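batch job 7 of whatever, protein = : DUF1573
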Amino acid sequence: MSRKWLSLVVIIAATFAAGAGVVAARWMKQNAEPAPPAPEQTLLTVDSSSLDFGEVWETDKFDWAVPVTNRSANSVDISRWGSSCNCTAVQPSSLRLSPGETKTITVRLDLTQTLYYQQAAQPVAVSLLPIVAEQNSRRSWQLSGTVKPLLRKQPNLVFGPLSAAAQPLSPLQTALSFVQPIETVSVECDSPYVTAVVVPSRDDAVRSDVRVEFRFARTIPFGTHPFKLALRGTFSSPRSEYSTQLQGNVSVVTDVQAQPAEALFAARTVGETCEEEIRLISLTGRPFRIESLTPQGAGLTVQRVNDEPRFVVRQQIVEGSQTKNSVVAVVVVEGGKQALTVPVISTGVVPPPTARKGTEK
């Protein structure tokens, strides 16, 4: 073979080898296992022992200290704190940690929001998330512990509906049953319309049951007025302090009310007529008479039942959706007139075509 032909063969072989190498490289790139993601850098750490607050009594202001350490080589800015529960507040609300620095935050938990009234203690877990500027990490910590209820059952602190005609309202009492004997107890209500006092016991003996009397302002406006009742005191044995708060409300309405309070019709076929009997009563037993009944809404009629304080509401279902109509009742009471609105709520359902065809004759 001449030198010219030999050189040509070498060039062709080299070109083929280079092309094969490119193809092999592309095949290896397409079929290679993806590289494992870089491990997330742990910027902040806490000691696991600081995340367990143990067994505690129910309270609306439970404070727990958690030391937070910056393990990175850079300063870390925590702009705010996220939580799995709106029962959590953190101080300080924002924080800067230098490299290697440890600072302690105070987590305040309202454990009354996590508690369902049972006689047994209940486990509670709340997630805490530091929001770090310029970091996408969603690393969070979980605070956990066990909450013991103060009371054996949730007391009824819903007063009403109470008649405005009965104002000033007479005091009402309710019982609080603690899970163990108490030495002292105090109550405080945050409402301008309600005050609370502990009913004195007949003796000074240690007790578990307490009666609280609620006294009302001379005049309370119409409507529902929520309040919080704070409980504080000490248990007798072992001697320890407790504090919590309970939710309640007082509702004041006009004297004449409807029973039921509304005519509520479930899903009915469009074109159907349904009815409900409504009775009017005086919460205080005062005499009254119905002066007029006015239906307000399409397909709605109303009929008195003799001369009794009763009437029948008839609603023709005219739309394939929820309809909110009403009947306005004007009654004559001692000292004037009172207007009462009775809601009439219905939901129309259009039957499927096959069902309609099956009923056609």
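notes: The first helix runs from residue 3 to 31.
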